[in-house]
Amino acid sequence: MAEYEDYEDNGFFNTSKGSSQDHENFLQFKKIFLPCMYLVVFVCGLLGNSLVLVISIFYQKLKTLTDVFLVNLPLADLVFVCTLPFWAYASMHEWIFGNFMCKTILGIYTMNFYTSMLILTCITVDRFLAVVQATKAYNQQAKWMTRGKIICLLIWVISLLLSLPQIIYGNVLYLDKVICGYHDDGISTVVLATQMTLGFFLPLLTMIVCYSVIIKTLLHARGFQKHRSLKIIFLVVAVFLLTQTPFNLVKLIRSTSWEYYAMTSYHYAITVTEAIAYLRACLNPLLYAFVGLKFRKNFLKLVKDIGCLPYLGVSYQWKSSEDTSKTLSASQNVEATSMFQL
């Protein structure tokens, strides 16, 4: 969390009256902007990821490897967004939840950050296998289901281990106000390098390699789903780049020189880009669940079961589309539909 770094110390900004005033303006901006963004991400992420979890557990029954990932991804994002109200209150006032909660929230936040990013990487590889090696992946579906569950368990364990520095070194700090964070230059460097590698470069590299091969495969395929599949790929990559690149770029620039800590413009940049990066927790349900025909069909069943919407025969249309997709997937065009229909 950018707000738990030690830029609250006004000593950096007291070199002149102008810079001190700029810092005061920044603090006022942060006090309004961050809580609003955190609460928006919290509400949208809570609703979206809860919906995906309910449908995945009660309607899709974990029949495929994709279903396994689509349970763990919203679960990680859901726990992640549940930490945001704590940070929202702390950014408006100060940290009042004590040292134990500080360590706990830091650990939960970090663990689910890594879990979410690593599962996104696994989903990319899963789609690669589903499209490029469709027949082989289908024949080994049961084996991949078992492997997928083991992979998800390993991801959670690895993420917990990676979050240990925040748990161990996280403390309540007393600056110009009480904040929750950790202040250790050596640990901060290791944490930053790990977050950049596993939280940005690994998913990005995986997307570039896998989706490049997928696009090449789809371009040689025939079928009405091909162009929709390509649009989904570009949308997934674009959203990842637009939400994650600015924040990671700012952090990378910051790591080159400590002088940036004394620049008010830098703190504006990292505050805004951090909030944008957290939008992934809201957008993941849309990108990795609602684009699938099967998921949308089950969503309609849920809506019908709870009586929120009259049955208008829409599910029949989706069922027809799904049946058509299955027919194509049994033909030479299997790679054109596997990507779109999760």
TrEMBL record:
GO cellular component: external side of plasma membrane
Encoding gene, per UniProt annotation: CXCR6
CDD domains: 7tmA_CXCR6
Highest taxon of source: Eukaryota
Keywords, comma-separated and alphabetical: Cell membrane, Disulfide bond, G-protein coupled receptor, Glycoprotein, Membrane, Receptor, Transducer, Transmembrane, Transmembrane helix
SUPFAM superfamilies per the UniProt record, alphabetical: Family A G protein-coupled receptor-like
Annotated compartments: Cell membrane
Transmembrane portions of the chain: 32-59, 68-88, 108-129, 150-169, 198-218, 230-247, 267-291
GO molecular function, one term: C-C chemokine receptor activity
Location of the G-protein coupled receptors family 1 profile domain: 48-288
Keyword Protease: no
UniProt xrefs under InterPro entries: CCR1-9-like, Chemokine_CXCR6, Chemokine_rcpt, GPCR_Rhodpsn, GPCR_Rhodpsn_7TM
Gene Ontology biological-process annotations: calcium-mediated signaling; cell chemotaxis; immune response; inflammatory response; positive regulation of cytosolic calcium ion concentration
Listed Pfam families: 7tm_1
Role summary: Receptor for the C-X-C chemokine CXCL16. Used as a coreceptor by SIVs and by strains of HIV-2 and m-tropic HIV-1.
Similarity field: Belongs to the G-protein coupled receptor 1 family.
UniProt source species: Otolemur garnettii
Topology of the protein relative to the lipid bilayer: Multi-pass membrane protein
The protein's name in its UniProt record: C-X-C chemokine receptor type 6
